[in-house]
Amino acid sequence: MARTLINMPKRARRGEVVEIKAMIAHVMETGYRRTETGAAIPRDILRLFVCTCDGEEVFRAEIHPGIAANPYFAFTALAAGSGTFVFSWTGDNGFAATESVRLEIE
Amino acid sequence: MRRREFLAAAGAAAGTLALRADPASATPEQAQEAIRALVGGGTLRKGRVKLDLPPLVENGNAVPLTVTVDSAMSAMDRVRAIHVIAEKNPQPVVAVLRFGPRAGRAAASTRIRLADSQTVVAVAEMADGSFWSGSAEALVTMSACVEGV
What we know:
Chain A is 0% helix and 54% strand. Chain A is built from no helices and 8 strands. In chain A, strands 2-8-7-4-5 form a 5-stranded mixed β-sheet, with no helix packed on it. A 3-stranded antiparallel β-sheet of chain A has the order 1-3-6, with no helix packed on it. In chain A, β4 and β5 (56-63) form a beta hairpin. Chain B is of the alpha+beta class. Chain B contains 2 helices and 9 strands. In chain B, the strands form 2 sheets. In chain B, strands 1, 3, 5, 6, 8 and 9 form a 6-stranded mixed β-sheet that branches. A 3-stranded antiparallel β-sheet of chain B has the order 2-4-7, with no helix packed on it. In chain B, a hairpin with a 6-residue loop joins β5 (79-86) and β6. The longest helix of chain B has 20 residues, at 2-21. The relative contact order of chain B is 0.27. The A-B interface holds A 17-18, 30, 32-36, 41, 52-53, 56-69, 71-78, 80 and B 24, 61-63, 84, 86, 89-91, 93-105, 107-113, 144-145, 147-149.
């Protein structure tokens, strides 16, 4: 499993807007580069990042080769109630990774 | 100030060279085409979208980008998606950021690749069907995707 890093508060007040930062280790090979001998390096990128909270979608990023290596996304979520945030990344060559973080309402 | 001017000039020159050497680079026309396809029959207006990029980029492989849309994110006034388009990248569409009903604010940050000095455009797709755009210029001294391995 690829290394992931999620930065978000564990606790929040009801109605508060919390900031979420998610990063994953991935080369994001564009498919436009060539080796010294001129052979094309095949594309190997992430295609999709989705964040849901108890099954309801919060944020989604459709990823293209123009996203830098080790894709990073920062976004916000409305803390409507306690819930589990699930982060999932999918990409070329069957790449899949998921991570989850619990948010408690004080 | 003088150093900055030199870097700017050098960046512009390097950018021109990179563009000529790289046939895979898209053109601003292709980017316009992508925006037209996205907007469809609707109208695209300037404003409400703030795109933040460093004005001078030393390394085009990882350029921090923040996009903010002036929207209350209520049931009526909501941003559905933000499309990030870099006109001189091999593929103009860099990312599509979609916001669900539980997204707090219409803002997001990421890191993108820039193949050349160019104007990056962000198009916001609102829930009421309107489209708004904002742009930012970036001067790239070392571009992404031109180096070998």
